[in-house]
Design a protein that fits this description.
Blueprint lengths: L8 H11 L21 E7 L9 E3 L11 E3 L4 E4 L2 E6 L9 E3 L1 E8 L2 E8 L6 E8 L12 E6 L8 E9 L4 E9 L2 E2 L2 E2 L7 E8 L2 E6 L2 E7 L6 H4 L4 E9 L15 E13 L24 E3 L9 E4 L9 E5 L7 E10 L5 E9 L12 E9 L11 E10 L9 E8 L6 E10 L6 E11 L8
Parallel strand pairs: 3-6
Antiparallel strand pairs: 1-19, 2-7, 4-5, 5-19, 7-18, 8-15, 8-19, 9-10, 9-18, 10-11, 11-12, 13-14, 15-16, 16-17, 20-23, 21-22, 22-29, 23-28, 24-27, 24-29, 25-26, 25-28
């Protein structure tokens, strides 16, 4: 939430408290973000930071921090080193502010597309790196043009990032927002976003926003969820990269804070639509990508914890590699969690899904009420929300129950025919925990294919 010029103190406090609480997403099957290569995206702008091109970027010079932050933004804190943009944060006073840091803003603005930024985050208490999109606030008084926060991080939480969308009116001033936090494991280890470079992305069109980290989609905002703001009011936006220091979003620096800190950006990519969204084949059905990850999938119902309940677990798969591991969130009432991913289809195509499952004797769901299903869902619009009217058909098969025998892999098959109007077939693997019961399920070798329509298809 980098730009907050007029938020009343009460609202700032409420927002800060909300953001310190991990949300549990209860939507059973959210959508998948399209990957750029060969999936209807055209690269229209890129930056590899061979130089600091001031015809492309504005280097901010300001002593007016927002959100009760405690820094000045100075051009001297911005540099390019070894092909990377470096935003340097230091405990060096400037005028009446105790810290200084860097911010750059693209001079070009876009409306709709896909933004990808590969970056390495700073790592200490009190620093607040952000990658976000904002309209020209001289033309669109915040938040009347919207704000898209691709990535934000609290320096004291290196394993956690968040994404958000802000919208409202001004005048009269009214601010609304939706957000989600995420963390993940790779090769069994909780990812520390300060140790290496990671790719943060958002897809934006008139229908909604899809946020992802390293190819794993973690948050979908549909236009209908935000008062149709994206289709009716969102303005063209510039890309903003900065590190704030202190403020309402996170703890201020203290004696434990390490100085200086560097927010390093390796590259930026901006894509525009060049055709309909499409994905011809399932990606990473083995869950082995990147040494064991959910790349290519959308995860949902994730309880943010040191032991995430939706993850790729190493050395648990059919072939000894990784497998998807699912268990419940232990929240109140029925809890749903899992992953989904789609391919493009046309009406009449035969669609087949296949997965293998394993219940470990050491953490069995046997005898309890936990269940899991594999579903083929059909949509009239790619990346549509599960609960939306764009869902036009569902077929499912139960893949695990309390009667499932532990100790061996089982294959499950599901066949369906794409109905009239379908453009996406989506495989959803859903774990249902109704009563806070223990037990996990492993899933591997996920497949989803579509064959030619039958001859008698209209």
């Amino acid at each position: 939430m980098p730009y907050r010029p007029t938020i009343p103190p009460k609202e700032r406090m409420q927002y800060s408290r909300l953001l310190t609480t991990a949300l549990v997403l209860l939507v059973p099957t959210p959508s998948l973000a399209a990957e750029p290569d060969g999936n209807g995206w055209k690269l229209v702008w890129s930056e590899d930071f061979e130089t600091l091109d001031k015809d492309r970027w504005t280097l901010v010079d300001s002593h007016r921090p927002t959100n009760n932050s405690r820094h000045a933004y100075l051009p001297s804190q911005v540099s390019v080193e070894n092909g990377r943009l470096v935003l340097l944060s230091e405990a060096v006073p400037s005028q009446d502010l105790p810290y200084r840091s860097g911010q750059v803003i693209s001079k070009r603005a876009w409306k709709h597309g896909r933004w990808e930024v590969r970056a390495k985050l700073p790592a200490t208490r009190g620093v607040w790196p952000a990658i976000w999109l904002l309209p020209d606030v001289d033309k669109y008084r915040w938040p009347s043009g919207g704000e898209i926060d691709i990535m934000e991080n609290r320096g004291n939480e290196p394993h956690l990032t968040s994404s958000a969308f802000h919208y409202g009116t001004n005048p009269p001033y009214r601010h609304e927002f939706v957000f989600e936090e995420q963390q993940t494991r790779r090769n069994g280890e909780l990812v520390d976003y300060t140790k290496d470079f990671h790719t943060y992305a958002v897809d934006w069109d008139e229908h909604g926003l899809t946020f992802s980290v390293d190819g794993v989609s973690h948050f979908r905002v549909d236009d209908s969820q935000v008062e149709d703001f994206l289709s009716k009011h969102a303005a063209p936006m510039q890309l903003v990269l900065n590190t704030a220091i202190g403020g309402d979003f996170l703890p201020d620096p203290d004696t434990s804070t390490v100085w200086p800190q560097r927010f390093e950006i390796d590259w930026v990519r901006v894509y525009e639509r060049d055709g309909a969204p499409a994905r011809k084949a399932l990606v990473n059905g083995s869950f082995d990508a990147d040494g064991g990850s959910l790349r290519g999938w959308t995860n949902f119902g994730v309880d943010l914890r040191d032991n995430p309940n939706v993850t790729a677990a190493p050395k648990t798969g059919v072939d000894g590699g990784a497998a998807l591991k699912l268990f419940g969130t232990f929240g109140t009432g029925s809890q749903y969690s899992g992953v989904s991913q789609g391919i493009d289809v046309t009406a009449g195509q035969h669609v087949r899904a296949s997965v293998q499952t394993f219940v470990s004797p050491d953490d069995s769901i046997a005898g309890g009420g936990n269940t899991a299903v594999a579903k083929i869902e059909f949509y009239r619009r790619f990346a549509a929300r599960f609960e939306s009217p764009d869902l036009i058909g569902v077929e499912e098969v139960v893949i695990a129950t309390g009667d499932s025998k532990p100790g061996r892999w089982r294959r499950h098959m599901l066949d369906a025919v794409a109905p009239e109007g379908a453009v996406e077939a989506r495989l959803a693997i859903v774990f249902h925990q109704p009563n806070q019961e223990a037990g996990a399920l492993f899933v591997d070798d996920a497949q989803l294919t579509a064959s030619k329509p039958s001859a008698d298809c209209p």
